[in-house]
Each structure stands twice: as structure tokens, then as C-alpha cells.
UniProtKB/TrEMBL annotation:
This is Cache domain-containing protein. CDD domains: PDC1_MCP_like. The lineage of its organism: Bacteria, Bacillati, Actinomycetota, Actinomycetes, Pseudonocardiales. It comes from the Bacteria.
Length: 245
């Protein structure tokens, strides 16, 4: 019976991830189609053309304001005619207002330059063509919260256009874990692929901290968290585990 709580928690996390990547796949398709349309017209995509994605982005943000901190597309160099470095990225307003555009430093000569090309959520999809889940990490460039970033590569033939991505609040997974576990007194954690805590039901193990194998309670089984689809995703599987009390 007690294992059922852990299994339920793992299933609910899978549902969240599958839903998020389903949405990112749609956004990636929209960017691909937008790029294909201007290419057929003999033109080059411009940053202003990305406004066509905003209706879908805003709708998604409004659907899940507690879960999604931000979402949008991040472009590879030379994809846009007027910008070499660009994020069409929108965030949920903490006060519940309209989505807020993320302003970052695009000047490579500046100390505050936001060099997203080196970030794992951008570099890994570019290099491998795989989806990726990165985190949890503190998002100093955006919200200063613990975040998970999900990214889906966008390609036109062999050309890498960028990624469709989403920032998810780690604390939302913590709420989900607590709701699923009900009255289980055992310390339980959701671990990422490197053994770092995504969420837990104990204040002694907070998001971002590492868990050694010796801290796991071997009397409880682990429950893996994988995408339901067969598409490869770096950073998974996660797992729901019981810890020693």
C-alpha cells in the first residue's frame, strides 16, 4: 500500500512532463513553419515576425501560472535577419497581470551578456538533437527561484534554428509530491538523473541538494520518471525514492 503513494507521485510527475513537452513540440512546429514560410517567400526571419507566436505563448502561461514561470523560443545565431542573439521569452507576472517580456543583455562585449549558447538547455539540443530537462538550478537571469528548464530543439533540415523551452518552478513539483504522498511519514524525494533533489517532503532535504545512495531506504522501491513517448530526453529518468528517516 505505501509503495502506491510513491508510484502515484511518479505518475503525476510523468503527466506534467509529458504535457509540457507536448506543448513545446507544438511551439517548435510553429517556429519551424514560420521560418519555412518566410524562406519560401525569399525572405529572412526577423525578430518582429516572432510576434506570431505570442498568442499561443500567452495562452499557455495563463493556463498554468503556478507551474510555468516562463516559456518561448530562443534563436540560434544568424537565424534572424536583424538579431544575432534573441529570446522571444515571456514570463508570468507574479502579480497576476499580463505576461512580461524577459529583457536580457544581448551585447557580447558587456559584463552582463546573457550567453545562452553555452547553457546546457541550449547547447545539448543543438549538439544532439535531443530534448533535455535541466535542473533544478537558481535562475539568476530571470526569477531567482529554483527552476527546471525543458527544451525541445527546432530544426529546418540540418539547420538548427534554436529551441522551444519552458521554465517550471521546482516548488510546484514539491506541492505535487506532497499532495500525492498524503499521510506518508517517510521522507521521500524526487531526484534528477544526477541524484540532485527536485522536490521532497522533508525540510532536511531541499531542492538542489545532492543525495548519496547510502541515504536511500532500501526497504522501499524506486519509481522511475520517464516520458511516456519514446523520444530521447537528456536529463531523465528521474526517480521517486524513500530516504532514511
Amino acid at each position: 500500500m505505501r509503495e502506491r503513494y510513491l508510484s502515484t507521485a511518479a505518475d503525476e510527475v510523468v503527466e506534467v512532463l509529458d504535457d509540457a513537452f507536448g506543448w513545446l513540440g507544438q511551439l517548435a512546429t510553429q517556429l519551424h513553419q514560420l521560418h519555412a514560410g518566410v524562406t519560401r517567400a525569399g525572405e529572412v526571419l526577423r525578430s518582429e515576425d516572432l510576434a506570431a507566436l505570442r498568442e499561443a505563448i500567452f495562452a499557455r502561461l495563463s493556463e498554468q501560472p503556478r507551474l510555468i514561470a516562463g516559456t518561448g523560443v530562443i534563436l540560434a545565431p544568424d537565424v534572424l535577419a536583424d538579431r544575432e542573439h534573441w529570446l522571444e521569452w515571456w514570463q508570468n507576472d507574479s502579480a497576476g497581470g499580463a505576461p512580461v517580456f524577459l529583457e536580457v543583455d544581448h551585447d557580447p562585449t558587456s559584463v552582463g551578456y546573457y550567453d545562452y549558447a553555452t547553457a546546457a538547455w541550449f547547447a545539448r539540443p543543438e549538439r544532439t538533437g535531443e530534448r533535455v530537462v535541466v535542473g533544478p538550478y537558481v535562475d539568476y537571469a530571470g526569477t531567482d527561484e529554483y527552476m527546471l528548464t525543458l527544451a525541445d530543439p527546432v530544426r529546418s533540415g540540418t539547420r538548427f534554428l534554436g529551441v522551444a523551452a519552458m521554465d517550471i518552478r521546482a516548488k510546484t513539483f514539491e506541492s505535487l509530491l506532497l499532495n500525492s504522498l498524503g499521510g506518508v511519514a517517510q521522507p521521500v524525494a524526487l531526484l534528477n538523473a544526477t541524484g540532485r533533489i527536485v522536490a521532497s517532503n522533508t525540510p532536511h532535504k531541499i531542492a538542489g541538494s545532492l543525495v548519496a545512495e547510502r541515504e536511500l531506504d532500501a526497504q522501499w522501491p524506486d519509481f522511475p520518471v520517464r516520458l511516456a513517448s519514446a523520444v530521447e530526453c537528456a536529463g531523465l529518468p528521474w526517480r521517486v525514492v524513500a530516504l532514511h528517516g
